[in-house]
Amino acid sequence: MATTTQLIGRDVLLPEQPRILVLHEPQPLPQPPSLTIEEQPARFYRFRYESEIEKDSGRVGGLLLGRSSTDGNKSFVRVRVSGIDPAVHSQLQLTVCTVSAEEKAPHPYYLHGDHCSNGYFQLKKTVDSAFKGSEWEITFNRLAVICVTRKSQMDIERAMELRRANVPSLPDAVESSKVEYTSRSMGSIRLAISLQFTDTRGMHWWQSTVYSDPINDDKQKKSIAVERLNPAEVPLTGGSLVAILTKTPTTGINKTDIKVDLQTLHGQSSAGSASAESTGSLRNFVRSCSIVELKKHLLVVRTPDMTSITRNDRLKCRLTVRSNGFESEDLEIVFFGKECGNVGSADTRDSRKRPRQQT
């Protein structure tokens, strides 16, 4: 191959200098560490007001607890970074901020506590010869979520402007402009947790963001207090409508958040086996009812087929209503075979009488 040059109006061919090509083997991508949430945050939380915190002090009130926390044994949100290799990773950086529960978009509520500044949490970890093991566990035992003034739409927009200016954008984040917040739609958030690492060549890598389960405003914390069933005896074959009357209103509870379980009582014989009393087995069988209708003081469910559970003509079960992580008191319901006849269908009307007004 030759190149052409112009010399006094004539084309002269000059030999081209040979090119020496140095082929470099492509560098493999560094193996990233993995990020997992070991303990989820509590389902319900009272978001703290800005007036309740002292920003310039080391005090943190209204701590965000973990899902398994109890009055006698408090636990906190905990994450774990695994697969850390000092030969590959030189530094880790964990960033946490708030996002909306549904859209996972930036949220105006912000974090306050240890390693928090400008409304978000950030912690760095150097990986060197002194680093022991291959895991890094972080417990958020001094972390609170602060709500903002939301008396008007202007207050919310001002809080969002501060959020955009102060909190870094995380990978896979939804643009905040696509979500329009109101004072009623701000009560549920998630924690967005992202891991960035620097490899031994000095290159920075972002991991995909991991989201916690929703954290709901404590005002949404509602359970169903049951009173009685109608009817309390239904056929084993299933498909019967049962009305569950409630003591407290179910306002604010979604039908999709309710589960109604049936559990057989100990000592009853099951199909294809001897009685529990004779075998010493105390195994319980659990079935779920389907939710048909939800009203202010009424929950209507449809019973499942229970014929595969027992050979007896009658089967006693405990009925439990679960909602938002809470369980109701147990109600007893009896399933009967064909020999026992039919007791009729459910009366879904609330038969409680109102007190007569005295004249």
Automatic annotation (TrEMBL):
Q: GO cellular component terms?
A: cytoplasm; nucleus
What is a single molecular function from GO for this protein?
DNA-binding transcription factor activity, RNA polymerase II-specific
Residues covered by the RHD domain: 30-222
Stored InterPro entries: NFkB/Dor (IPR000451), p53-like_TF_DNA-bd_sf (IPR008967), RHD_DNA_bind_dom (IPR011539), RHD_DNA_bind_dom_sf (IPR037059)
| Superkingdom of the source species | Eukaryota
One GO biological process term is: positive regulation of transcription by RNA polymerase II
**Designated name of the protein:** RHD domain-containing protein
Species of provenance: Macrostomum lignano
